[in-house]
Amino acid sequence: MLGQVVYDDNKFLVKIRRRAHTPILKGVEKLQTHFSVPWLDGKPMEIEWTA
User: Fold this and answer.
1) 28 phi and psi, to 5 degrees?
2) Which top-rank group of organisms is this from (predicted)?
């Protein structure tokens, strides 16, 4: 599985496998902590890097 999105009625958790393209995403400071997404009613989103 390359990735997964989990929603628990409070927040979104995006699980992404560590691959060659993830260093670019990991270099974006905003993606290192949870952040709110305006078009999802301000729900928090968090990215989890998996093996």
Assistant:
1) -85, 110
2) Bacteria
